[in-house]
Structures
1.
Amino acid sequence: MGMLIDGKWESDDDKLVDDDGRLRRPDSAFRNWITADGSAGPTGEAGFRAEPGRYHLYIARACPWAHRTTIFRELKGLQDAIDLSVTHWLMAEDGWTFRPGPGVVPDPLHGADTVWQLYVKSDPRYTGRVTVPVLWDKQRDCIVSNESADIIRMFNSAFDGVGAGEGDYYPMELRGEIDAINDRVYDGLNNGVYKAGFAKKQSAYDEAVTDVFETLDWLEQRLSAHEWLCGDTLTEADWRLFTTLLRFDPVYHGHFKCNLRRLVDYPVLWDYTRRLFAHPAVAPTVDMDHIKRHYYQSHRHINPTGIVPKGPAMSFARD
Ligand SMILES: N[C@@H](CCC(=O)N[C@@H](CS)C(=O)NCC(=O)O)C(=O)O
């Protein structure tokens, strides 16, 4: 891993873990919003009107946060309106790159070799982490946003007047409930598995892994009464949960030591995951090879040999 300091790339060790051994995930730096009329969104500047062909999305197939954005691009039929580049699965001393490999889609706009070059192009003095996803504005030649939670909300509604498909995954009447579920799922599970996996002290790991399984137990309970997290309506909250559940047994159970139970040991959650997996928006976005190789080969501090396990033998397809 590495980071940019005043526009210069520094391959450092992991600086995200505090003295108490706990992972601290920094806030995303680019928080502008694409809106239907180009007015400012909840954060950042105005001037990013929804126009087909104007924006480009950079993602890694391995990354659960980037994965949400590709699911929303499919859900809303934005594949032709917003082009996609896909990084190499390996995140090593240059961070995310576009080096050739199966499933890699290079940067057609600048021919960038690395994602950090995109950050410097947008902000030559940038200091901070270089993360995916990145949503790029071709017109202003800058990053609109590098926060997946915001990007999925833009995709959900900003392009509705210019050709996006049906569907509202953040309906007005459910927003309070969705936000509350997201908060709990983010802290206990989406980020919880990372807190467990990247902990450098036993106490930090113990705390995180306990939260992970308390959150899964709570979800199992909640979903036994309803089809989706908010009852009969499939929402953003389900999609944000899905990308973590998909990675749970193949990666988080082994690599991040979240091994009290497996996803398949939760009958309700397992069935729910497979129902979401069967949604037509999902198949084009999943690359399990990128997912497994990324985690096991990139995080050498927790898997020094870089060996990628063969298992688990499991199928998300419903019989
Ligand atoms: N809050 C961001 C987090 C994105 C994120 O942390 N992405 C990871 C990949 S899974 C990354 O690019 N990490 C690189 C780094 O921290 O150096 C979002 O949801 O968009």
Note: The first helix runs from residue 64 to 75.
2.
Amino acid sequence: MGMAIEVEGLVKRYRRKPALDGVSLSVADGDAFGYVGPNGAGKTTTIRCLLGLVRPTAGVIRILGHNVATDLGAVLADVGHLPGEFGLWPQLTGAECLDYLGTLQQRAPVRRRELCDRLELSQADLRRQVRLYSRGMKQKIGIIQAFQHEPRALVLDEPTEGLDPVMKERFVELLAGHRQAGGTIFLSSHILSEVEETTERVAVLKAGRIVRTGATADLTGERVRHCTLVLKQPLADAAALDIEGVSGLESDGLIHRFEFRGDMEPLMRRLGTFAVQEFLSEPEHLAETFFEIYGDSDQGRSR
Ligand SMILES: Nc1ncnc2c1ncn2[C@@H]1O[C@H](COP(=O)(O)OP(=O)(O)OP(=O)(O)O)[C@@H](O)[C@H]1O
């Protein structure tokens, strides 16, 4: 299988301070790759380098076989890009913005109508000036322009920012459709469920370096969950919540809060023996989880 994205020894320094300090990664044609890390890790800088928006200090990037430094036009023709901070022209209508962005893509926007329907951006909405749009509507324009010309690869920076849960689901369906058609995805996100649902491989970036890469399922298995258990009756045995994976237990009457790591099955079995009024389990954001794994040190593992 060919490589859709190949990055070798990417360095970007801003005034001698490294934002990227030797990043190398590869994404096979047709793969979905997640790119995660705490704020300031260098995710957006990497994506800007991939799209030729920032000139690397060192390193080589090839996308769909084209060298970004020497053949940017060919790269842009075949890539759909959604920047993290997506700016639109407030005085233009949504349709005018899509038209203009379409001219930069050098390919017909064959999917625009269908995408507008799926993301529920009506023809009336498209005729309105963007200054009147909500944040989510602007994000929909961003998604539509990234997909509208049927690119072979998508490079997406925090793509679901501002979308409501229904639209997030539609977006995930769009990604699945892109994969089914053989397309490649490079997605930077802080949202665990999104990365889990849409990617098979993930790289964790920290302070400009990749500290780990691997199967998404392996890495997300290490996440912490914040759990809140509300019981109908007090626990008969205070040690009843002494279960593998539970830590930081704080009890206040019928309410028990704790953190949980690992396989939830034994925990759920134990909960089945209690009179439970409510149980909430919130996964931590992926970036936080990995930040916790690696602490403040630069020590990282590679697989
Ligand atoms: N134009 C710039 N000039 C100077 N420093 C910059 C510039 N752009 C980014 N940086 C620095 O480079 C580092 C990486 O920033 P980047 O925006 O790539 O991180 P990120 O992982 O996308 O963060 P976030 O999750 O907060 O969006 C940060 O220290 C940032 O301050």
Note: Residues 14, 19, 37, 39-45, 84 surround adenosine-5'-triphosphate (CB under 6 Å).
